[in-house]
Amino acid sequence: METVGKEMFEYVNSQLDKIEEKYGIEILYCVEAGSRGWGFSNEDSDYDIRFIFKRPLNDYFSINTKKDTIDYINGDLDFVGWDIKKALHLHWKSNPNLKEWTKQKIIYRGDCKFLDNLPAFSPVTLKYHYGSLAYNNWKRYVVGKDNKMTKKVTKRYMYAIRCILTWILIDEGKDAPIEIDELMKCFINDDRMGTRLYADILMLISYYRSNCQKSKPDERAIENVTTFINAYIEIMKADKPKMEELSEIEIYNKRFREIVLE
Prior knowledge:
There is one protein chain. The chain is of the alpha+beta class. It has 2 domains: 6-119 and 248-260, 2-Layer Sandwich (Beta Polymerase, domain 2); 123-238, Four Helix Bundle (Hemerythrin (Met), subunit A) (Up-down Bundle). Helices cover 51% and strands 13% of the residues. It has a 5-stranded mixed beta sheet, with helices on both faces. A hairpin with a 2-residue loop joins strand 3 and strand 4 (77-83). The longest helix is centred in the middle third of the chain and has 21 residues, at 151-171. The protein is globular and about 60 Å long.
């Protein structure tokens, strides 16, 4: 599992203090997302820091609408925040990014208990997200290119593998782990992968984590992983489940009022 050092942890929190002061908000919850949150970062990876905030009560009763997002960049630290109203609306829509935020292990501040006991995220929506993400990244950045295992191409392999494995588990009614090592453990001795492919994927993960400095997987291994990805890209593309109805919105309205009135 990825971690951040004490010095970086404290620095991130000092920046969160500055964000709170600058924008007049309270940060309820803040995590590390992106490649560090997924567990396959390398020395060039930046910090994708995501948070949920609330504004003073009067801001929610003002005619002039306040921005519901905050973007703040400091060097290789990329902060993105969502207002609690936006976060709850996206929870209602089963937003996959929000779901991932709630499961991250690198937590800089707070917790997400304020999202407890809300309706479950729609597996249909989640599957569509991961299927589309895998397909679009793969077709745009890999298919039809020379496929040399540059760092950029290897990163797209990582994205595709993570999305595919997550999609498979959701399709089976399971809650997929966020971190890639934990995700891979779900497929040990799985007939759909086999020991050779499993080892090839682990080798690719190690290669990317080394910033593509270690010996890269051989052509056979790359071809094996590529065949697996292409096969599941087609399976996910063909899967067209019926979209589910949204949960009752008043559940979220009630929770919003509870949070902003605290």
